[in-house]
Amino acid sequence: MSTWRDEKNQKARARLEKRLSALFPACVLSHALRQPLIPPTQRRAVESYWRHRPLLADRLARALAARSGQPAGWQWRLGSDKDTGLPLSFRAPPAPYREAAFARGPGHCCVCGQPVYRLGWHRDLWDDGKPNRNATWHAACVVAWQFWTSPPDHLRILKLRQQRRCATSGRRLLKTAEVDHRVPLFAIWSEHRSTPWPALLSFWGAPNLQVINRAAHVEKNAEEAAGRARRRISELEPTLEEEFAAPLADGDPIPISG
């Protein structure tokens, strides 16, 4: 098995170095050569680099989004048709540049709106000013989107960020620990909908993610459910008061049975 891997890595390294650009990011090359199986192409090396760094990809994607800013006239809305690009649920992060009305087209990332250069890179290292017209995603934004939409898949790295300690109790994280949003997604939709778009993304990113033990997660979910129930009751109270007050306003007596 070791011989097979060594032979495969030799061929992959030779193929990678044969087509290596002089301006290829040194950090990506260093990462690629440290892998148990060396990626044989530059593009696969870039993909591997970001796949192993989801927290960095998350931070970069949000920074690129802040550079683009919120498109004029855009509002966070939900849709019922995937063709429009509108999210179907408030659980999906808002992405104005994925919507048909605001998309910037090929050569620009549909997540952050910034130009996409060779190999899905976010900077013009080649200094030719030519975005890749065949690309609509940054390699980093691909990983960031996966991180935002499926944080449990990155449980291990989130545990390491917290030094394997529960974010609520401070105790050691158990094998059953779960990823949680500090501010729940339903609260983002109901209470923070008017927040400018680039800042909204932080609710899906690392700043709003924590790993907590399952018991603490169950307790937190119960408290959130109770809070939602109390909010619904408080919203209904004025309506009920108006309904019961209506007969009195008209001068009609309230019938009393018994």
Describe the SSE topology.
Elements: H1 2-18, H2 26-33, H3 42-51, H4 54-68, H5 139-149, H6 155-161, E1 178-181, H7 185-191, H8 197-200, E2 209-212, H9 214-249
Antiparallel strand pairs: 1-2
Helix pairs in contact: 2-3, 4-5
Descriptive report:
With about 260 residues, the chain is mainly α. The chain has a domain at about 1-50. Helix content is about 45%, strand content about 5%. It contains 9 helices and 2 strands, in the order ααααααβααβα. It has helices at about 1-20, 25-35, 40-50, 55-70, 140-150, 155-160, 185-190, 195-200, 215-250, and strands spanning about 180, 210. It has a two-stranded antiparallel ribbon. Helix 4 crosses helix 5 (about 140-150). The longest helix has about 35 residues, at about 215-250.
List descriptors.
disordered C terminus; two-stranded antiparallel sheet; mainly alpha; 258 residues; flat; 3% strand; 2 strands
Report strand order across the widest sheet.
1-2
For the biggest sheet, the summary is: 2 strands, antiparallel
- What is the count of DSSP helices, taking H or I runs of 4+ residues? 9
Cα-atom Rg, whole angstroms?
A: 25 Å
Average residue pLDDT: 89
Q: N-to-C SSE series?
A: HHHHHHEHHEH
Helix percent band: 40-55%
Task: Supply the helix-strand structural class.
Answer: mainly alpha
End-to-end separation in angstroms reads 89 Å
- Please tell me what the overall shape is: flat
Can you tell me the residue ranges where pLDDT is under 50 for at least 5 consecutive residues? 254-258
Name the quaternary structure: single chain
Strand content: under 5%
Protein name: HNH endonuclease
Organism: Microvirga terrae
